């Protein structure tokens, strides 16, 4: 069994690969006008602000902050999302590609 300390990086690596291909500057536009931002493709409908009025902005940051190669803000926001009731389930990529899978191959050879 993989320890919780080792599991967190596995989750983030898998999620980053399947959402953005590890592209910290990834920006995707949805049909409803919202955007998916950064390495984890965090959506502007709920999590960050594109200066659209009446949007929750749970992460209390601008969506453009999530496009920075310094991933600190992005990781903080992603951690807030995982604390919500649906947790990682908010990400379709997680549900289809990472959840319930053996993720150890993502970090083979890494020393944590």
Which secondary structure elements does this structure contain, and how are they paired or packed?
Elements: H1 4-20, E1 27-29, E2 35-37, E3 42-43, H2 72-82, H3 92-98
Helix pairs in contact: 1-3
Structure notes:
The chain is mainly alpha-helical. It has a single domain (2-100), classed as Orthogonal Bundle (Lysozyme), CATH 1.10.530.10. It has helices spanning 4-20, 72-82, 92-98, and strands at residues 27-29, 35-37, 42-43. A three-stranded antiparallel beta sheet has the order 1-2-3. α1 (4-20) crosses α3. The chain is globular and about 45 Å long. Mean pLDDT is 90; it is low at 1-5.
The best one-word shape is globular
Number of helices: 3
CATH architecture classification: Orthogonal Bundle
When the domains are counted, the total is 1
Order of helices and strands: HEEEHH
Average pLDDT, all residues? 90
Low-confidence segments, given as residue ranges, are 1-5
> How many β-strand stretches?
3
Q: What is the fold named in CATH at topology level? A: Lysozyme
Proportion of helical residues: 25-40%
What is the CA-atom radius of gyration, in angstroms? 14 Å
Largest sheet: number of strands, sense, barrel closure: 3 strands, antiparallel
Strand order of the largest sheet: 1-2-3
Secondary-structure-based class equals mainly alpha
**% residues in beta strands:** 5-15%
Distance between the termini: 15 Å
Question: What would a concise description of this structure say?
Answer:
This protein is mainly alpha-helical and 112 residues long. It has 3 helices and 3 strands. Helix 1 packs across helix 3.
């Amino acid at each position: 069994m993989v320890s919780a300390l080792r599991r967190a990086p596995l989750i983030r690596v898998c999620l980053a690969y399947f959402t953005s291909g590890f592209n910290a500057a990834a920006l995707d536009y949805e049909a409803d006008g919202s955007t998916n931002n950064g390495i984890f493709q965090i959506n502007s409908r709920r999590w960050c602000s594109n200066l659209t009025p009446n949007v929750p902005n749970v992460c209390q940051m601008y969506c453009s902050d999530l496009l920075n190669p310094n991933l600190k803000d992005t990781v903080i926001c992603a951690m807030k999302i995982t604390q919500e009731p649906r947790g990682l389930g908010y990400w379709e990529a997680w549900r289809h590609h990472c959840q319930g899978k053996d993720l150890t191959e993502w970090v083979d050879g890494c020393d944590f």
